[in-house]
Structures are given as structure tokens and as C-alpha cells.
Design goal:
This protein is an alpha/beta fold and 562 residues long. The chain has helices spanning 19-38, 54-63, 67-84, 98-113, 196-205, 221-232, 262-281, 286-289, 305-319, 351-357, 362-371, 383-413, 425-434, 437-446, 450-471, 473-479, 481-501, 507-517, 551-561; strands at residues 3-8, 42-49, 91-94, 118-127, 132-133, 139-142, 151-152, 169-173, 181-190, 207-208, 211-212, 238-239, 241-243, 258-260, 294-301, 330-331, 334-336, 339-340, 379-381. It has 2 domains: 3-134 and 180-331, Rossmann fold, CATH 3.40.50.620; 384-528, Orthogonal Bundle (Isoleucyl-tRNA Synthetase, Domain 1), CATH 1.10.730.10. The strands form 6 sheets. It has a 5-stranded parallel β-sheet. The chain has a 4-stranded antiparallel β-sheet with strand order 5-4-9-12, with no helix packed on it.
Length: 562
């Protein structure tokens, strides 16, 4: 049995989540977790709200609320959205919790005691009219890389480039709209450059302190490429504290008014979430974070690569005893109808809106988002494609095969599974193919190729439809009843296999299939067997798994984006 700690990037509790978030980190992580649990591995899946940083206070100012009101609102809203989509975290934690504050402060003090941080003075942007230093997200300007005029002080949302406020052209305060001035302040810095050598050895070659800890060939090219580019370009020191009144206070005397940098605080949220879960479950949290046998996998979007592959690993290494990520499978961005998703322009599909408009169609969204997952390059969601994939694949292939099998068994054998008689060559060939699918699909999931894995699930259903069409049991029942019995016996075994293999991707559908089959399963490997449903086993009545989505519904959704 293998042990995993799986993390999905902590979403800011400053607004609702949209399909880009789900496709980027949460759905791939959930698929991976569900598969590993079916393989009967020890898996903990942690996430939670990132409730500190300027993004929270900006939203609070905009809505004329307190930061606490904002985080309470969106934490609850987003947690409900994840649950509705069956994103099955072991715990959905909060970085505003007492335990997280204690954990993050303890982490800081540990590193401070080892002289990891360097305190130095620097000039930072200050808004005179607001009488405060400006955190990165309180500054907007023109991106020096792509010319986008609404780039933030930490990142350009157009090209994805990580920035510092001083790099912006014509910077402006988001509080007052005025040009800020530079004013001296002091902060604790993490000298990233001191870590270039071991980071390169770890990321590029897979070695840490002389031990092989991961295979770089299993890492995505976009992740390796971005990390290498950063290291080769020379890493710069980064401030680990901020002048803010919202966040985890710096736990040192004389540092009042300073909080931990959100990208020091937030990743530690994975650890505090695990501690909170372990406390409730009465297990040892340290075996998930400090045992070298445990595999730490961080699912993120590409805009978070530098934090999870550079900054967080440095923090873990400098603290000591913590394991480093085994893999960081970062996805690219999901666009919407040919344009970048923009929350400020409301060019997005919000999950709570989707759930209101497409009641009970959670698996349908999971299916489409996985089918177009931006695994290696940006991809595009369109409503017409959503409709086509639902109607042509879920309804016409997957649902059609299952329904035909269940209808036939109910019609001709009163719901009792018929006996398997003489096996023909075509049956043998089909059985040999069926037993290969779990291994084939599992291998793709283990390589983080979820699109490929889902394609094979649909291929199995497609194979089932072909088998029925070629053998026509509805005709055989009249001329050769024994042959019809064998065909339907094998077909019902395929339906069982689909109930198992679809679970990581379509958990609701899998559950419905188990109900129809009047049978359940406990592990992944049973799907490679073709005797799971015994002769005379009573199945339930037919029930449509999916339904056609019409043009009117889709056109209505398209009109909302224009």
C-alpha cells in the first residue's frame, strides 16, 4: 500500500469559483485521489480557503465589508460548490483558523532561529492619501512583458508573468488611483539564490541530499521549463513579510503591523489542514509530511508553479524533516468561448450559477472539463462543445450502451441476469479487451493524463455498443436464446466494469450504476474480472443516466456571455 498526501491549490476566499478553477487544479486532483483510493492506497486530500493577503482586503473595500465578512461568505459558498461537484476533500480548511496561525508562526520562528531570513530595508510603494504601504495586489500598471495595462504588482493576469511592483510601467494605487511614492520600510527576506544549486539538482535531476526522490521524466514539460528558466535566470531574494493589517502577524517583538507574506502563509495551510484532519481522526499527521515513503503531490494551475516548486520547497527544506513534492502536475489555463476567463468583466461560468441552471448535471460538467483539460496547453470551453460532448458521448455512447443492456435483461429475463453459455471467438476477443482497460486507464491516471484515461472509459462503452450491434441479441432471443443469454451476460459484466472505471471521473453516475446493478465494488482491480455479476442476480429497472441538452438551453447560456 502506498501513502499519498494530495493538495489542491487553496482558492482565495474573495469571490466564487468558476470552471477555470475546477479544470485547473481541483478536478484533476479529485480524479487522481478517487483512483488511488480505489487502488486501496492511503490517501489524504487537503484543501481550504486562502483567507489572507491583499486580494481579501481589496474585495472587502470594494463591497464595503470587513475582511472577516468576505472570507466567511466565500469560504461557505466555495465549499458548497466543491461538494456539489463531488470534489471530495478529506478536509476543507481555513487559513484564518487558530491552528493555522499557530502553525504558520511556528514555521516562521523555526526558520528565523536558523537565520534563514535576512532583515533588510527597502523602498516600497506607499499611498500618501491612504497612509499605507501598498501590497503587490494594491498596485496596478502596465506589464513590461506584454503591455497589458491592468497587471498587478505580483503577476500579469494576461501573460502569466510573475512580477514585482517596481517592474510595472506607470504604477497606480488601486485604493486611490494615484501614483504611489517610494518609502523606506523593512522586511524579512528569503534569499532564494542560496538555494539554486540543490533546487536544480532536485527539480531537473530528481535528487535531494544524494537520494533519488522523483523521476523528472514524470514531470510536465511546462513545469520543468518554467522552473529551469527561473533558476537559470538567477533567483532573487523575496520578502516574506508585508505591511498589512490583515494576515498572520509576524511572531517577533517589534514587528507590529507586519504579517507573513501570503505565499509563505498559504502553502503551510496544507500542513495545518492535515493537522486539523489528523486531530479529528486521531492519527499522526507527521507520517504524511515527514515520512520519506509518503508521496506529496501538489495540483495547481501554471500561475502557481514558482511558489510550489521554488518557494515552498525551500521553506520545507530549511525547516527540516519535511518531504518535498513528488510531483507538481500544473495545468495550463482554460479559456471561455475563445477568450480568457475574466472575473472583473464577468466573462466566466461561475459554479454556483451552473448548478442553478443545470440542476443534477454535475457529472456532465466534470466529463466535459476533463475531456478538454488544459494539461499541456491552454484549452477552450464552449457551450456548443459542452452540448455536443454530452449528447454525442455521454448520452449516445455511454448511456445508450448501459440502457440497452438493462432494458434487454428486464424485458426478456425479468431482470435476472442470464447464464453465460458457449463462448464464441468474438466473445473471447471482447473479454480479452475488457480485462485490459483497468490497467490502461490506471496507467494514464498515474501519468496525470486524465483526458486520455477518460477517452478510454468512453471507448469501453463504445466497444459495448459495437458488440451489441454486431451480435443483435434482440434477434438471437427468437432463434438462439442460449446465444442471447451469453451476449447479455458478457454485456452486464461490461456495465459493471464501467461502474468502477467511471467512478474517478463520474462519481454520481458510478453510484447510479451500482444502484441499477444492485451491486457494489470495493476496489479498482475487480473491474478486470468478468464474473462480478452472477447468474440469476436481480438487477433494477432501466434508468436513463444522462439526457439530451437542447439548443434553446445552450443558446440561453451563450447569450449571457455577450
Amino acid at each position: 500500500m502506498e501513502r499519498f498526501i494530495i493538495t489542491a491549490a487553496l482558492p482565495y476566499a474573495n469571490g466564487p469559483i468558476h470552471i477555470g478553477h475546477i479544470a485547473g487544479a481541483y478536478l484533476p486532483a479529485d480524479i487522481f485521489v478517487r483512483y488511488q483510493k480505489l487502488k486501496q492506497n492511503d490517501v489524504i486530500f487537503v484543501c481550504g480557503s486562502d483567507e489572507h493577503g491583499a486580494a481579501i482586503t481589496l474585495r472587502a473595500k470594494k463591497e464595503q465589508k470587513t475582511p472577516r465578512e468576505i472570507i466567511d461568505l466565500y469560504h461557505e459558498k466555495n465549499e458548497k460548490s466543491f461538494k456539489a461537484l463531488n470534489i471530495n476533500f478529506n478536509i476543507y480548511h481555513r487559513t484564518s483558523s487558530k491552528l493555522h496561525h499557530e502553525t504558520a508562526q511556528s514555521f516562521f520562528k523555526n526558520l528565523h532561529s536558523k537565520n534563514v531570513f535576512v532583515k533588510k530595508k527597502s523602498k516600497q510603494f506607499f499611498d500618501i492619501s491612504a497612509n499605507q504601504f501598498l501590497a503587490d495586489r494594491y498596485i496596478k500598471g502596465t506589464c513590461p512583458k506584454c503591455g497589458f495595462k491592468e497587471a498587478y504588482g505580483d503577476q500579469c493576469e494576461s501573460c502569466g508573468t510573475t512580477l514585482s511592483p517596481l517592474e510595472l510601467i506607470d504604477p497606480k494605487s488601486t485604493i486611490s488611483g494615484n501614483s504611489p511614492e517610494l518609502k523606506e520600510t523593512s522586511h524579512w527576506y528569503l534569499p532564494l539564490n542560496k538555494n539554486e544549486s540543490w533546487l536544480n539538482e532536485w527539480i531537473v535531476n530528481g535528487y535531494f541530499q544524494g537520494n533519488k526522490v522523483h523521476d523528472p521524466k514524470t514531470w510536465k514539460n511546462n513545469v520543468l521549463g518554467q522552473c529551469k528558466s527561473w533558476i537559470d535566470g538567477g533567483l532573487q531574494s523575496r520578502a516574506m513579510t508585508r505591511d498589512l493589517d490583515w494576515g498572520v502577524p509576524v511572531p517577533l517583538d517589534g514587528e507590529k503591523g507586519k504579517v507573513l507574506y501570503v505565499w509563505l502563509d498559504a502553502p503551510i495551510g496544507y500542513i495545518s489542514a492535515t493537522k486539523e484532519w489528523a486531530k479529528k481522526e486521531k492519527v499522526d499527521w507527521e507520517k504524511y509530511w515527514k515520512n520519506p515513503e509518503t508521496k506529496l503531490i501538489n495540483f495547481i494551475g501554471k500561475d502557481n508553479i514558482v511558489f510550489h516548486c521554488i518557494i515552498f520547497p525551500i521553506l520545507l527544506k530549511e525547516h527540516g524533516n519535511f518531504i518535498l513534492p513528488k510531483n507538481v502536475p500544473a495545468n495550463e489555463f482554460l479559456n471561455l468561448e475563445g477568450r480568457k476567463i475574466s472575473t472583473s468583466r464577468n466573462h466566466a461560468i461561475w459554479i454556483d450559477d451552473y448548478l442553478n441552471n443545470f440542476a443534477n448535471k454535475t457529472d456532465e460538467l466534470r466529463f466535459v472539463l476533463c475531456s478538454i483539460s488544459p494539461e499541456n496547453k491552454d484549452s477552450d470551453f464552449t457551450w456548443k462543445d459542452f452540448q455536443a460532448r454530452n449528447n454525442n458521448e455521454l448520452v449516445a455512447i455511454f448511456g445508450n450502451f448501459v440502457n440497452r443492456v438493462i432494458v434487454l435483461i428486464n424485458k426478456y429475463w425479468d431482470g435476472s441476469v442470464p447464464a453465460r453459455g458457449e463462448i464464441h471467438e468474438e466473445d473471447e476477443n471482447l473479454i480479452n479487451k475488457i480485462i485490459q482497460y483497468p490497467k490502461k486507464i490506471g496507467k494514464s491516471i498515474e501519468k496525470y493524463k486524465f483526458r486520455e484515461a477518460l477517452f478510454e472509459v468512453i471507448n469501453l462503452a463504445r466497444l459495448g455498443n459495437k458488440y451489441l450491434a454486431d451480435n443483435e441479441p434482440w434477434k438471437q432471443i427468437k432463434i438462439n436464446p442460449k446465444r442471447a443469454e451469453t451476449i447479455l451476460n458478457i454485456s452486464i459484466q461490461m456495465v459493471f466494469s464501467l461502474s468502477v472505471l467511471s467512478k474517478p471521473f463520474l462519481p454520481k453516475t458510478s453510484k447510479k450504476l451500482c444502484k441499477i446493478l444492485n451491486s457494489d465494488f470495493s476496489n479498482w482491480d475487480c473491474s478486470s474480472e468478468i464474473n462480478n455479476i452472477k447468474e440469476d442476480h436481480k438487477i433494477g429497472p432501466p434508468e436513463h443516466l444522462f439526457e439530451i441538452i437542447d439548443n434553446e438551453k445552450i443558446n440561453d447560456e451563450i447569450s449571457k456571455l455577450n
